[in-house]
Amino acid sequence: MTAPLLSLAQIRNRLALAARTVLRRHAPGRDGRCPVCRVPCCPAARTAEDLLAAIRRGPTAPRAAGSFEVLND
Ligand SMILES: [Zn+2]
Questions:
Q1: How far apart are CA 17 and CA 20, in angstroms?
Q2: 5 C-alpha to center of ligand 1: Å?
Q3: Cβ pair 71, 47 in contact under 8 A
Q4: Whether residue 71 has pLDDT greater than 60
Q5: What's the sign of the alpha-carbon dihedral 9, 14, 15, 21?
Q6: How far apart are CA 60 and CA 72, in angstroms?
Q7: What distance in angstroms lies between residue 62's CA and the mean position of ligand 1's atoms?
Q8: d(CA 67, CA 60)
Q9: In this structure, which residues have their CB less than 5 angstroms from ion ligand 1?
Q10: Domain ranges of the chain
Q11: Residue 48: its pLDDT value, please?
């Protein structure tokens, strides 16, 4: 199922494609709610937006153990 020997750029591109697909499918309808999840603030769309933002920021230096990045601010 997984393709072997993908470069980092290929993995990043596939993640971006998947995130864009999620954003397209979970785009708010006329009532402002996600047509899939039926909620106003779709967690899937938010996660996809966060992933695209992380991809745009590019690779980061390794983090110290116990530290983490807050994406939902
Ligand atoms: Zn949704």
A1: 5
A2: 32
A3: no
A4: no
A5: positive
A6: 18
A7: 31
A8: 13
A9: 26, 34, 36-37, 42, 44
A10: 8-57
A11: 98
pLDDT of residue 72: 54
CA dist list (Å): 33 to 28, 38, 43, 44: 5, 6, 11, 12
Q: Which two tokens stand for residue 24?
A: 């397209």
pLDDT digits (tens, 9 = 90+) for 10-46: 999 999 999 999 999 999 999 999 999 999 999 999 9
Distance 49 CA to ligand 1 centre (A): 12
Which token pair is 22?
Answer: 């999620």
| CA 26 – ligand 1 centroid, Å | 4
So what's the pLDDT on residue 67?
A: 61
Identify the residue whose tokens are 């745009």: 56
Residues 5 and 32: their CA atoms lie apart, in Å, by 41
